[in-house]
């Protein structure tokens, strides 16, 4: 259970670094051990820590990092921690897979994929006179 | 090394079941152990074997399963096998993360995410008179 809490904490730290455009924090969150990979929406796959961190440097330079995440599902398979969650980035809803590797008792990111979710329409407004 | 070959074989089997609309084969490829999850492009996250297999039943019913995959990168982290690859589905280029769990010496799928890649434009035609 403590594992899952620390895994969720690492996942929170990833989105905090993203939202705060904090490249040093983002860099520290990613594993120094290869393989490391990242599948940004609309990009070809990036493989290798240096390539992945270069992509984050360019993403965090832009101003639209108004990202939040919600509804995480987290579990552990041996040394791998898996988190799937929704992301809200600007007006878009995305869904993500984040993979962490347990290294010296720290969960370090080694893979991230995010992709668009078709927006779920909001529920219809209540009809006048109906009970809520 | 043998691990990686069997992992790539399991990944090939996934795309063969997809392309051949073979629901029994697809069902056998997915782990019977929870957690199981699947993030189809444009869909909200699906969690749980039954929900995930219901989604595959509806996907394999439609006719556009003209899928191929290419450029897989595969590696192992303990009991987890990770494959990232490109997918070509109809005219679309997607990229995917496939996660397999080693269960009684078989790699069984427990997570899949696919998402669109912006098409890379083909290289421009050579100018007349230039050397190739």
Oligomer type? homodimer
The low-confidence parts of chain A are none
Taken from the alpha-carbon principal axes, the silhouette of chain A is globular
> The CATH topology of chain A is what?
Nuclear Transport Factor 2, Chain: A
CATH architecture of chain A: Roll
| Largest protein interface, residues of each chain | A-B, 33 and 33 residues
- Please summarize the sheet with the most strands of chain A: 6 strands, mixed
Q: Which strand order do you get reading across the main beta sheet of chain A? A: 2-1-6-5-4-3
Round the Cα radius of gyration of chain A to an integer and report it: 17 Å
The total beta strand count of chain A reads: 6
Distance between the termini of chain A: 38 Å
> H/E series of chain A, N to C?
HHEEHEEEE
**Number of distinct helices of chain A:** 3
Q: Which key terms come to mind for this protein?
A:
3 helices, globular, homodimer, Nuclear Transport Factor 2, Chain: A, alpha+beta, 132 residues
Question: Which helices and strands occur, and which strands form pairs?
Answer:
The structure is a homodimer of 132-residue chains.
Chain A: H1 2-19, H2 23-29, E1 37-39, E2 46-47, H3 49-61, E3 67-77, E4 80-89, E5 92-103, E6 106-116
Parallel strand pairs in A: 1-6
Antiparallel strand pairs in A: 1-2, 3-4, 4-5, 5-6
Please give a quick description of this structure.
Two copies of one chain form a homodimer. Chain A is of the alpha+beta class. Chain A is built from three helices and six strands.
């Amino acid at each position: 259970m403590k594992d899952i809490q620390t895994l969720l904490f690492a996942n929170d730290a990833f989105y905090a670094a993203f939202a705060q455009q904090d490249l040093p924090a983002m860099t520290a969150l990613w594993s120094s051990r290869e393989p490391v990979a990242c599948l940004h929406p609309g990009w070809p796959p990036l493989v290798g820590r240096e390539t992945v961190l270069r992509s984050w440097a360019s993403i965090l330079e832009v101003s639209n990092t108004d990202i939040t995440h919600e509804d995480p599902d987290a579990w552990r398979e041996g040394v791998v921690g898996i988190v799937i969650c929704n992301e809200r980035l600007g007006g878009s809803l995305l869904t993500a897979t984040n993979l962490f590797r347990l290294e010296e008792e720290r969960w370090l990111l080694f893979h991230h994929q995010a992709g668009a979710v078709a927006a779920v329409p909001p529920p219809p407004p209540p009809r006048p006179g109906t009970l809520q």
